[in-house]
Structures are given as C-alpha cells and as structure tokens.
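Sanity check

After download, print the first record. It should look like this:
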Amino acid sequence: MNETRLCTYDQCHEFTPHSWNHYYCDTCGCKRKAENARKRLSEDDLFEQPRAFKEVAIRSAPDGYRILIINDLQRPFHDQKTLTAVENFWDEFKPNLEIYNGDIVDLYTISSFDTNPSRRFYLQDELDDTYGWLGHRVQKNPSARRIEDDGNHEDRLRRLLWKHGHELNSLRALDLSELLHLNDLGIEHLDYSSVIDFLGYRIEHGYKTTQSKAYPTNTSRWMAIATGSSGLCGHTHHFSTYSWTDARGGHSYTENGCLCRFDMDYAPFPNWQQAFTWGVVYHNKVYLVPTLIYPDGFVAMGEHYKR
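Expected structure tokens:
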C-alpha cells in the first residue's frame, strides 16, 4: 500500500500503512493509547442513551393532502382477504403519506416465546416476504411519502442483538432497516417508541394493551390520558375511539385495530377487530376516518370494498 493516511487516534502523524487495517501510527504508540481510551468510560459515556427515539413533526400540509395509516399486519400472518380489500381502496385513494405504524412483520422465528415447530419458514423468509410487499406498495403509489414506525414485533431483532452483546449489535447489516432495504425503497424508518406528529395528531405504535376479554378496557382512553393529545395507536388489535373536549377544543384518540389473521397460535378465539384509518387535510387540520372492517368488507368514500 502506497497511499498515506493520518493516525486515527489523534491525527498526530501521517504515515504509510502496511496493511488495510493499519490505522494508528507506530511513532507515538497510538494503538495502545486508543485501546486504553476505550477502556476508560466516563460517567456520561456509561449512561449514554442507547436508542434513538425520534419525533417526526409535520407541521403543515395543503388542502386535499391524503394520509393512510395501517398497523399489525404481522406478516406472514396477515389476513390476505382483508389486506386485498384495503389495498383496493388504497390504490384508488393514493395517499400522499403512508404510515406503516408497527408490527408490519411478525419476526416469529426470533420470538422469545415458544414457537410452533411445524412452521417451516425462517427469518430470511419473513424479511423477503415483507420487503417484497413493501416494494409492491412503492410501485403502486411511487410519489407518496412513507414512514415505517417499528412496533414491538420489529423490536424483537433489537432485543435479540442486545441479548448477544456487542459482537452482533455493532453490525450495521443486522439493523432491521438494512435487512428490509428501507432506504432503497425510500421509506423513512423510526425505532420502536418513536412518534409521528402530524398536524398535532400523535401517531405511534403503542405499548399499552388489555386482554382479549368480552369487554376489553378502552386503550384509546388510556392513551389519551397518558399523552394528553389527540392521536392513534396500534398494538392492541382492538378498534375503539375516545373523544373529549377541553379549553383547546375537541379531541379524539383511536385504537387502529389490526390486519392480521385471527387464528394465531397464542390467541385462540381472540376479541380482535380489523381496521385501518385514512384521512384528508383541510385548512391544515386532518379529518381522519377510522374504518372498521366487517366480515364482508368495509365502506370508504361511499364505496363498498368486498373482503
């Protein structure tokens, strides 16, 4: 190797490396200095925030701007009949903003819970399936802005990597956004527990849930109290809305149901509901329509979409 490089430790000398991974100059013992520096953790470094929770704020949108929010497909356990009906509407509606609000992929194969050994697919199969579907959505509506907000199922990969320490967690290629090629698809990626603030409406995957009893607790009310804001969450597989009025005016919070199957191994005869939400902006205010999906389909913008 003939090209010179600066010492990586403190740029003290320019030198000619004798191999591709020769980063430190030999003159000042910088390799040892770098190793010692890595061993000395300051208090700030020790308690550094390990994850990047973000808030994406969209403060303005023109009249007629369209938004669509889905969550909890849990591919490959999505309900294909239901998803096809939603996509038929989706293709006609052509939203300007598509929000994939968590649990789009199940990551069943790396679940910390017991898994059914009769399942014959692998992690790469789940990733390929989800990537293929996301690519299909991009082709159907190429001009839309897309945001993927991780749910607890996508977060299974982060938990797996943390469990096995720095050896695996440091590999960028094992980041979910890399594995799903989200950047190549033009999809913005947010870590689990991040928030999208769309014109003051708080959208997140969510974390609070209740058991699927006959009359489950209204999580939309719980989230409204917890956040103090109008908003929407997934996660629960329930569909509900909660509304209230205060000095600022009227507000609402929505549990956005799910688009997955109802025959999961872990949930026999669940009290779940399939749903999604769409809306249109007028005077910089978003008018959202939470849409419950019945066994025979749903109605949106005056049309029936058969399931």
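If your output differs, re-run the checksum step. Summary of this record's structure: The chain has two domains: 5-46, 55-306.
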